[in-house]
Design goal:
about 375 residues, Phosphatase 2c, domain 1, 2 domains, six-stranded mixed sheet
């Protein structure tokens, strides 16, 4: 039942309004002074306040009512306030609306019009309340998503992770606050690095949660004596057992031996990384098997490639390779990618990373999907 507070210093007015609103099915409280108004709204919740503008101290100007309205707004900025006065002017009405009144009714009133104004004020108040709750919820969600982004970013390796003879550079660019892309560089010992990049099918928080789970599993399983083939097999079993049906992950996992300049890898359905040779030749690393989580008994092959001094390993997610220009051409299949790699092959890992990001941005204008880039360079001794 809608609850109304009526504030008026005239007994006959209060009684008339009591009879009217009770006949319309409203619950109603009455007060007869500004102090009683403030006390009532502080201790009860009302759907609307019907407020007289004039009291004993000031019977005609409406000044006392405007002062009271300001105090009400300081105490409760959402309560719909419908003003009543027998001494209305355009100036008074405008001033009252600026302070926070939602409507203005002259005395003597028309019962039907007054009831209609009260119902409109209640509905407008509820709409503002819903909008306020929605805005608060939206702000809370945005804040939580920002926290999630910061947490996800902290879980990724920083640029400080280096190993003698190797330079590692990375860019992680989620399309939203959080993303389903993942990369990791794990130092296993003084001469070995585990390199990993992955992409969850889907976007947003569900994809980010699944990828965080994969990241934790990779770090738990990564060892020098666990081959990339075995790693992908274990990860596939874990994803099949725990991931929601229909979700799968593409992932590349490699073990880089810096003493022998060799990398053993397995590719579980991921965008094939590119081995950029000193001569500008690009070798795509695709040996492995299907994406993780597709079939529980999948078997993964592995292969070995040399990473000689001066050469680069470029690992990407499809947010980069499938970035599309206005003509519908994808960056990964364009001459722009090949030209960028060939032109900048003698640069450092940082320079090559920046050149690739500039190239894809120039090609497509704006990245629309999660995009991750990892450049691993073998330094000249």
């Amino acid at each position: 039942m809608n609850r109304i507070l009526v504030a008026d210093d005239q007994t006959d007015v209060r009684e008339s309004l009591r009879i009217l609103f009770r006949s319309e099915g409203f619950a109603m409280d009455v007060v007869n002074s500004p102090i009683a108004v403030l006390k009532a709204i502080s201790s009860h919740r009302y759907d609307v306040l019907l407020l007289d503008m004039n009291y004993a101290r000031d019977t005609t100007s409406g000044g006392e009512g405007l002062e009271l309205l300001s105090r009400i707004r300081q105490q409760d900025d959402t309560l719909p306030v419908l003003l009543m006065t027998a001494w209305s002017t355009v100036g008074l009405a405008v001033q009252a609306m600026r302070i926070g009144a939602c409507d203005f009714v002259e005395k003597p009133w028309d019962n039907a019009q007054l009831v209609s104004a009260v119902r409109r004020s209640i509905e407008a108040g509820r709409l503002r309340e819903r909008q306020g709750k929605s805005a608060t919820l939206t702000q809370r969600i945005l804040s939580e998503m920002e926290d999630a982004r910061a947490t996800q970013q902290r879980l990724l390796p920083g640029e400080a992770l280096q190993i003698e003879g190797i330079e590692v550079q990375a860019a992680w660019l989620p399309a939203g606050n959080v993303g389903g892309d993942y990369f990791d560089v794990i130092r296993l010992n003084d001469r070995a690095l585990a390199l990993c990049i992955g992409d969850v099918c889907g976007k947003g928080l569900p994809a980010a949660l699944l990828m965080s789970n994969i990241q934790a599993t990779v770090r738990a399983y990564a060892r020098v004596d666990r081959s990339p083939s075995a790693m992908c097999t274990e990860l596939n079993r874990a994803v099949c057992a725990n991931a929601q049906s229909g979700r799968f992950i593409t992932l590349f996992y490699g073990l880089l031996d810096t003493a022998q300049n060799l990398m053993t890898y397995a590719n579980a359905g991921h965008v094939p990384p590119i081995l950029l040779g000193n001569d500008g030749c690009c070798t795509r690393l695709s040996d492995g098997g299907v994406g993780l989580g597709m079939f529980p008994n999948s078997v993964y092959e592995q292969n070995v490639v040399a990473l000689s001094p001066g050469e680069h390993l470029i690992l990407m997610t499809d947010g980069i390779t499938e970035a599309t220009n206005a003509a519908g051409q994808q960056f990964g299949e364009s001459r722009a990618l090949a030209a960028c790699l060939s032109r900048n092959r003698r640069w450092t890992a940082r320079q090559l990373k920046d050149a690739l990001l500039d190239s894809v941005t120039s090609f497509t204008g704006e990245l629309e999907d999660d995009a991750t880039l990892l450049v691993v360079s073998r330094l000249h001794r």
